[in-house]
Write a structure and sequence with these properties.
The protein has 249 residues and is α+β, with helices and mostly antiparallel strands. The protein has a single domain, classed as PPM-type phosphatase domain (Phosphatase 2c, domain 1). The strands form two sheets. The protein has a five-stranded antiparallel sheet. A hairpin with a 4-residue loop joins β2 and β3. α1 packs antiparallel against α2. The longest helix has 25 residues. The N and C termini lie close together (10 Å). 47% of the residues are buried.
Length: 249
């Protein structure tokens, strides 16, 4: 099968949740260019909202400035990495120049699809998942204190769920002058479903619950709404954003 012929469709939805006064999540997508992004802002006042929106806008702007078609799939992911670094610089400089936004930052998870390949890139604890053969698998690794403790064997998953330290992010976009996104290479297949989400979804719903909802035979926009509704029903303690991307021939 010629996987260069893979096509992608996408839908996204964001919700304030039940307990937050505003929505500091942001998302963006350029389906024709194969890039999809979810960000979750942090900071006082409106700083989180500014950081996440600026990160999405700058990443898409820098990425789309490249001539296409790509000379190779690797050129696309390199362009995405460069765009994320530019977004980090934009958020960091904006905070430096505006005292009201000091310390603001944002998480970021992006999916880049080019030819027969795809990549997840992430900074922070917004996640990238893959559903293949009706099985959900988390691809990205959270840059959070508790998840790093779990991976090091110093904390159990159960302890991490209830830890008072679970809000501590160890890597974010815009809080420092330099940042390094993690990059995960994928080999897409027809029927694959990719989920990008903020932690307002992944904290309220278990992987098993997300998997069950995504295995329903429904259009992408309805799947997004079912995820948002379930997260709100489970508590809705934070802003909730999900972006779904399906591969087909």
């Amino acid at each position: 099968m010629d996987l260069t012929a893979l096509r992608y469709s996408a839908q996204a939805l964001s919700d304030r949740g039940r307990k937050r006064e505003s929505n500091e999540d942001a998302f963006g997508l350029l389906v024709d260019q194969g890039i999809f992004i979810v960000c979750d802002g942090m900071g006082g006042a409106a700083a989180g909202e500014v950081a996440s929106s600026l990160a999405v806008e700058e990443t898409l702007r820098k990425f789309s400035a490249h001539d296409q078609p790509w000379p190779s799939p690797e050129a696309a992911v390199q362009a995405a990495e460069d765009a994320i670094l530019a977004a980090n610089d934009a958020v960091y400089r904006h905070a430096e120049q505006n005292p009201a936004f000091a310390g603001m930052g944002t998480t970021l998870v992006a999916l880049v699809c080019a030819g027969p390949q795809a990549w997840f890139l992430n900074v922070g604890d917004s996640r990238g998942y893959l559903v293949r053969g009706r099985q959900l698998r988390q691809i990205t690794l959270d840059h959070s204190l508790v998840d790093e403790q779990v991976r090091a064997g110093r904390m159990t998953q159960e302890q991490a769920l209830y830890s008072p330290l679970r809000n501590i992010i160890t890597r974010a976009l815009g809080t420092r002058g330099q940042v390094t996104p993690d990059v995960f290479e994928l080999d897409p297949e027809p029927g694959d479903l990719f989920l990008l989400c903020s932690d307002g979804l992944s904290r309220e719903l278990s992987d098993a619950e997300i998997e069950s909802l995504l295995n329903a035979d429904r259009p992408l926009d309805e799947l997004c709404k079912s995820l948002i509704d379930a997260a709100n029903h489970a508590g809705g303690g934070d802003n909730i954003t999900c972006l779904l991307v399906r591969a087909s021939v």
